[in-house]
């Protein structure tokens, strides 16, 4: 049935003959034995914890048809016969559709799985971009990897599979270590592949990348909206076995495999070049497959200790207030002495403590950063800012903390600001610190302000086309990852285009200026401003610059092209009210998946600004406009019902105090409105409550 030129099949030992007639065993200089049942079951137990469950979904397998994946399928089939509790296996074969015979090869592999190993199988054909050039070899490898993992991820999601087995083995691991050595990627880079990690190349795909499993409803948590959970993991049980042993395994079990001819092209990829070297040359023992695999294992163990200590012990010691409505947090890091379980005395102790500190800082920043991969060097350079004890200052150099911190900075798309205000945390456990002064290890972390280029990328500007179909036939919307921080689902119910993007200063044009409000105060809804709830929500946000990191929904008229502001999904506020406007759109928000360690969500996440809080603030502003409440912008404190509670909330960063108004305020009040004067701005924060009046003042100055 299968044409002889379609596949190069092998069911015998792989050897090569050099030009000198000397036989060299492929990938191994020692006699290779098959992987035993006990060895595989032990390796499987390290990456996959299973228990009997009749309703359990299958375990996915990425099968290429090569000796590695066919050996994995054969070993798992054998393990199933010994362990009834193992879930069913489902093989996925990716059809790259680049060569004419590609589809037939994929179907052959699927038939082998079904007929020889009793494994269900599905062929996944790839769809290449229109501008794809198969002759561009470098781009081909990159595109193929991305499309392959995304196809596998979607297939797993559709079948509700959460774990995918892949057949990377010891030779692959050694090749990876050698490539990283060649590229000077040392230290943590020498970990190479992990036996368990999240599926790559799928960021932003809902139900695949850190998402798909909603948080269980729990009203007692008192958080603004759910946190995403779930995701698909990659499992690599064969990293401890050399390829020669997998070949021996297939030979023993009579399993036929196919060989990809492109793997023999030495110059196609760096990995192919390294494979050619291993195949045809005798390398020093230090560069042998076994030695390089040992290097990766030792580095993994070394970093694993620091991560476990930082994640399990130190993270739980951090005092954190996380606002998921704005994606910002206030944190107090634990004392320097806690970075190791022993006194930090020697230089070696300091090096190990610094490694732990890096892991902790990375762990905290993950809560708010829009990016998934940390810039190791840049983030490591910030350790001294938080723990100046690592820096050896010259004798007589005063102001230890002040010399090192040097103000605010941006790393990993996070704006790090030292917190120089009274602490919201009551515990000052660190010795040698004056509790009456700002705590030197407290930091405010917010999303770094976006530049013009960032605001235009697809992840930060999502377009929802007009809804031209009846409601019954409309395509069901799905969650999309916005700015790497929020999963937002929007259904467009209009004949216009909706756009979800970051709110900017230019967007203040959608609000009336102070003078316009003053002139038209009685023209809309008896004096009720359509933007009043948004204005109130903005005034509850501290620092004020976080408003320029919020996702906002805009409506673009299909006829005129004019744009109008709809609302802010994470604040659940819109023009003239709360929630999405009826007949315009529907929205639902979830925060990105985060690891809270041993803490409950309610222990770290603050309630944020609720509808009750925003309504109370709107009422306060309205009464202020009517002259009932006297306001002085410098050192303002919220007044009225629930004021004390709101002042203690995380959203109220700025501490405020009540003061009396002067005669000028009285005169303004008599005219029917109290205008807040401009406030001092320090480090991007403003004391004033009314953002509209601040903006109108700026516009007025420009007009003079």
Automatic annotation (TrEMBL):
Domain of life: Eukaryota
Region (Disordered): 650-704
GO molecular function, one term: ATP binding
EC number of the protein: 6.3.4.19
Catalytic activity: cytidine(34) in tRNA(Ile2) + L-lysine + ATP = lysidine(34) in tRNA(Ile2) + AMP + diphosphate + H(+)
Keywords: ATP-binding, Ligase, Nucleotide-binding, tRNA processing
Biological processes annotated in GO: tRNA processing
The tRNA(Ile)-lysidine/2-thiocytidine synthase N-terminal domain, residue ranges: 62-276
Enzyme class: ligase
Keyword presence, Repeat: no
InterPro entries assigned: Rossmann-like_a/b/a_fold, TilS/TtcA_N, tRNA_Ile_lys_synt, tRNA_Ile_lys_synt_N
NCBIfam families: lysidine_TilS_N
Identification of the protein by name: tRNA(Ile)-lysidine synthetase
Taxonomic source organism: Clathrospora elynae
